[in-house]
Design brief:
By secondary structure, this protein is α/β, with parallel strands linked by helices. The protein has a single domain, classed as TIM Barrel (Alpha-Beta Barrel), CATH 3.20.20.370. The protein is built from eight helices and eight strands. The strands form two sheets. Strands 1, 2, 3, 6, 7 and 8 form a six-stranded parallel β-sheet that branches. Strands 4-5 form a two-stranded parallel sheet. The chain is globular and about 45 Å long. The structure holds zinc ion (ZN). Zinc ion (ZN) binds next to loops.
Length: about 210
Amino acid sequence: MKKRSRWEVQPPKWIRMFYPGTFWRGDVEDKVVYLTFDDGPVPEVTEWVCKELEKRNIKATFFCVGENVTRYPGLFRMLKDKGHGTGSHTYNHLPAWKCSGNEYLENVDKGNDVIGSDLFRPPHGQLYPWQVAALKKRFGKIVMWDVLSKDYDRQLTAEEVFENVRRNVRPGSVIVFHDSAKAWPRLEKALPRTLDHLLKEGYRFEVL
Ligand SMILES: [Zn+2]
């Protein structure tokens, strides 16, 4: 049976247009991708991800949850020491559509007090258009995605997570994985496979 990619794996243009001024894909012709990891840092998973990247000399950008940075400052420092990029992902992983505007922005600010980044990615990709404006006053870049691996989806196999990336990647793609315990059962197999595949295809990895 042929499986269709769901819209969120590679959001169509009309969805991207609802969020003017946000970053979904790099405007490049070369085979460059921006690998990103959300929701960490957490012990073991983040450390393992770093090792897999280091083995292949790849740098990525980690969108961190402020609460995790507060709990594991050593892991956050390790990401920076290894030359990876870091971005802000709120303090408590708050979904924008489920809280009041002020509550959301306060949580964003609390998170970035410990993360200190010019990059922001909204949890669950949720934002209201008016929030884009408020966030753009705080951050240089609001980063969405071009390819969502869906590594967090328990209904998918590692193979399907890999296929989500393999089928949809293109020059300039912002690719999302998660350095989280929830994603781990799929990440463990899908990430090394994805990295090796993209290297074989001649992709270079850049930090946002
Ligand atoms: Zn997240």
